[in-house]
Write a structure and sequence with these properties.
The protein has 180 residues and is mainly α. The protein is 88% helix and 0% strand. It has 6 helices and no strands. The radius of gyration is 56 Å and the shape is rod-shaped. The N and C termini lie far apart (151 Å).
């Protein structure tokens, strides 16, 4: 509502200025400037100060013109500084957002890499386990074969040829003689 009042007062000042009623234009412009200062609206203050300086120049009031024009340039410089700060802040916010997005993507890629690395280590551990199990089985089979060979050779060596010669001879009785 107050911004509408400021716009209406600025419009009145312009109309009065065109009608060459510069005193009324000064009053309307100063009232609009007062409202703009209450709201601390720098953009409106710059515009109204510029219009007010033009009105003072049309009135041929050089002293008020110089004061208002100096105020206009101060407000314009302050407006440009604030605008530059706002642009820098927006740039920094956008840059931070991109950095955060980049870091999030980077972290997700690292997490995927760690998951793949963990899976590969698990597969390698399983392969080593099964390889170790196969080696142990081969070793156990070799031990069993050695044991069997040793026991066989010991068993065969206990039955030597000389043992067979010393065996008592059995009497062979023919079946025919037995029946009689």
């Amino acid at each position: 509502n107050s911004y509408l009042k400021i716009d209406a007062l600025r419009g009145l000042a312009q109309v009065y200025s065109l009608k060459k009623e510069h005193e009324k234009a000064v009053i309307a412009a100063e009232e609009a400037l007062g409202y703009a200062k209450r709201f601390n609206n720098l953009f409106l203050q710059v515009k109204i100060s510029e219009e007010l300086a033009g009105i003072y120049l049309a009135l041929n009031n050089l002293e008020e013109y110089k004061i208002t024009n100096a105020k206009f340039f101060e407000l314009q410089d302050e407006s440009e500084v604030r605008e530059q700060e706002d642009i820098n802040m927006a740039y920094n916010l956008i840059s931070d957002e991109h950095d955060n997005k980049y870091n999030a993507e980077k972290a997700s890629y690292f997490n995927i890499g760690y998951a793949i690395l963990g899976f590969l280590l698990l597969v390698i551990a399983a392969c080593v386990f099964f390889w170790q199990k196969a080696v142990q089985r081969q070793k156990n089979i070799g031990q069993v074969v050695n044991y069997i060979e040793i026991t066989r050779s010991n068993l065969l060596s206990s039955f030597s040829v000389s043992d067979k010669k010393h065996e008592p001879k059995k009497n062979l009785i023919l079946k025919e003689t037995e029946l009689q």
